Amino acid sequence: MPKRRANHEGTIYKRQDGRWVASVTLPGGKRKSFYGQTRQEVGQKLTVGLKARLDGVPLPSDQLKVGRYLQEWLQSVAPSIRPTTWRRYEQLLRIHVLPALGGLPLTRLEPRHIQHLYADLLAHGMPGNTVRLLHTVFRRAMGQAAKWSMVPRNVVQLVSPPRSARHEMQPLSAAQTRALLDVAQGERLSALYVLAIHTGMRLGELLGLQWRDIDLTAGRLHVQHTLLRTRGIWRLAEPKTARSRRRIALAPGAIEALRHHRAQQATERLHLGAAWEDNDMVFANAVGRLLQANHILNRCFRPLLAKAGLPQIRFHDLRHTAATLLLHQGVHPKVVSEMLGHSSIGMTLDVYSHVIPDMQDTAVKAMDALLRG
After folding, report:
1. What is the total count of domains within the chain?
2. Can you list the alpha helix ranges (DSSP code H) found in 245-332?
3. What φ, ψ does residue 237 adopt, rounded to 5°?
4. Is residue 19 one of the residues assigned to a domain?
5. What's residue 15's pLDDT?
6. Cα–Cα distance between 289 and 85 in angstroms, integer?
7. CB-based burial of residue 330 (10 Å sphere; 0-12 exposed, 13-18 middle, 19+ buried)?
8. Least confident of 16-20, 76-80, 172-176, 351-355
9. Across the strands, what pairs with 60?
10. Cβ(345)–Cβ(337) below 8 Å
C-alpha cells in the first residue's frame, strides 16, 4: 500500500471515470482540486499548489491559458527592455506560439507541445536561428511563470532547440581592405569606411556617432549611441549592452580621415546656411539629418564594393575584417574584445577561432627564437 500523505500535504486519488484528482486545503478550510489524466500530472499541479500556499500567492488555475499569460508577461517586461526588442518578442509569440499553443491551459503545457511546435516551424521553412530566438523568448517567459508559482517548472528548458547556424564571415584581406579604402577616397563618406575598418564599430554605432563623442586631440572616441529604426523612424538610442558603451583609441589614419571629414562638413554647412540642421552628427545626410542604414548599404557601400572589384559582403563584415587584421598582427584578443564591445574575451576567441591557429604558429616561432638565442 502507498504511504498515506500527512496532513497539509494534499491528497491524490483516482476517480471512477479514470481521471486523477489532487486536492489541497487552503487557509480557512476551503479545498482546491486539480484534475488530470495521470497521477504524475496532478502530482505536479499539487506541488505548485502547495508551494503557492506556502508562499502566500494565489493558486494556479486551469482557466489561465498560455496565450493570456504570454500577453500579461509581455506587458510586464515592456519597461525593462528596448522597444525594438519588445516588438520582436511580441511578434514571435503572437505569430508562432499563440496560434498553436495559445488556447492550452498554462498548467498543461508540456515539453512535447513545444518540441512539436519547433519541428512544425522548421518543416515550414523557418530558419533554425529564428526558432532558437523564439526558444529564448519562450524560455524567459515560462521562467517567469515558474518564479511566480504559476507552473511547477519551466518546461521550455526541457526542450532542445535547433542548432545555431552562423552567418559565414567574409572578412577582407589586407590587400582587399587597402583596395576598398583607395576607391573610397574622394567619396563624401570615405571617413565612415576608414573608421569602420580601424575600430570595428557596428554600422548603427557609426551612424549614431556625434562630434561631442570624439576627441581628435587625444585620439579617442566614446561609443554612446546607436542608430535604431523604431516604427519606421530612425532615432538615436543607447547601446544594447554596457560593454557596447566603450572608449576606442584612434589610429593616426582614422584621425586624419575624421579631420578631413569635419572640414568637408563645415563647408556643406556654410553653403546651406539656415537650411542645415545641426544635430552634431558625424555622419549626416546633405542637410545634417540622421543617415539611414539602408541608404548607406544600397546607395553607397554596395556600389563602392563593385567599383573596387570586391565581393558583395555585408557591412558587418568590415567589423570582422578589423578584428581579423588586428589578431593577425598579434594584438592581444583582450584588446580586440574591448574594441569590439564583446561581452567577454571568450566570445571574441569563439567568433574568431579561425585566426587562433595562425596566432599559435607565431607564438611557437617566437618561443623557439627566444630559446635558441
Report:
1. 3
2. 252-272, 293-295, 302-308, 316-328
3. -140, 165
4. yes
5. 83
6. 25
7. exposed
8. 351-355
9. none
10. yes
217 in a domain, yes or no? yes
The whole-angstrom separation of Cα 291 and Cα 229 is 11
3-state SS string for 264-278: HHHHHHHHHHHHCCC
Bridge-partner residues for 36, per DSSP?
Answer: 20
- For residues 89 and 97, the answer to whether their CB atoms sit within 8 Å is no
Distance, in Å, from the CA atom of 50 to the CA atom of 23, rounded to the nearest integer, reads 10
Q: Are residues 30 and 119 in the same domain?
A: no
Bridge partners (DSSP) of residue 226 are 237
Q: For the whole model, what pTM was predicted?
A: 0.66
Q: What is the pLDDT of residue 89?
A: 94
- Alpha-carbon gap, residue 114 to 131, rounded angstroms: 11
Neighbours of 309 (CB within 10 A): 10
Span 247-292, pLDDT tens digits: 999 999 999 999 999 999 999 999 999 999 999 999 999 999 999 8
Instruction: Using the 3D structure, point to which of 158, 185, 215 is the last residue of a domain.
Output: 158
Place of cell 489532487: 22
Is there a single domain that holds both residue 86 and residue 143?
Answer: yes
Q: Which domain holds residue 16?
A: 11-55
Question: How wide is the angle at C-alpha 158 spanned by C-alphas 153 and 161, nearest 5°?
Answer: 135
Distance in angstroms (rounded) separating the CA atoms of residues 77 and 86: 8
- The per-residue pLDDT for range 210-249, each reduced to its tens digit, is 999 999 999 999 999 998 876 667 888 888 788 889 999 9
User: Where are any strands of DSSP class E within the chain?
Assistant: 11-14, 20-25, 31-36, 214-215, 220-222, 226-230, 233-237, 247-249
